[in-house]
Specification:
alpha+beta; Jelly Rolls; eight-stranded antiparallel β-sheet; four-stranded antiparallel β-sheet; 5 helices; 14 strands
Amino acid sequence: MIASHPKVTEELHAAYLADGVVKIPNAVSEEWLPQIEAMADAQLLDPGRWVTDTNPGARRDRLFTSRYRWKSDPTVNRYIYESGVGHIAAALMGSASARFYFDHLLIKEPKTQAPTPWHQDIPYWPFLGKQICSAWVSTSRVTVEESSLEFVRGSHRWDSYFAPEAFDGSKGWVNDFEGEPCPDVAAAREDYDIVGFDVEPGDALFFSAWALHGSPGNAGNGRRVALSTRWLGDDATWYPHPGCDPTVTGEDTTVEIGQYPGDEDLFPLVYKTPDASLREINS
């Protein structure tokens, strides 16, 4: 039996399946927002291992991201297990379960020029499957004109798998991948059905890992803090490949290529329907 959730109406579920993205208002209770902001402040002062920082120390024009904090940061760990976003993700994906993949903190200081280029997530990750998504939550009000996310509606159903590219233009660890280049959506916006979302604090954007998406820099006068968590549904399989994220590799897990990623140490099962057995999820 697939998951259900009171915030996931039939209309929202249908929209997710058709568009590849939906906004869930008040998906996260307000008690989490100051905790996420405090965690963000701490990361800026003492960055973790997996960090990207375009302008270290600056209070303007700085894009900062930090990943894989769930094992070492108690706030992130509690958020994963207690915020309920995994349950919502399972319901939207039509899955009986949701395994956690990784957390991604994204900070754009005021007047940040660097955009998040248009891309798919799936080629950057060592998984295949249609039931893979993100839950992106902002701690403040954000408009599309300032720095919220935009999506090419329905692009998750194209069956396209675009070659990953480094966002800063460098070669880096994505250099080994050969494949179809991602279309330059920004240069031909009129050719695509683009939808964007203004969000209030605690709203969440849930979107498929196959959906093309991007965002501008930060034209606003305030800091944009967002926490994105990545979720694996029942049909996810382990698929490490050239060009994917090197943080977790085949050397870290006993899961074989093509298998369901039932590794509790790396990809913990955060939610499953009460009547779902692990045998049913794995089959």
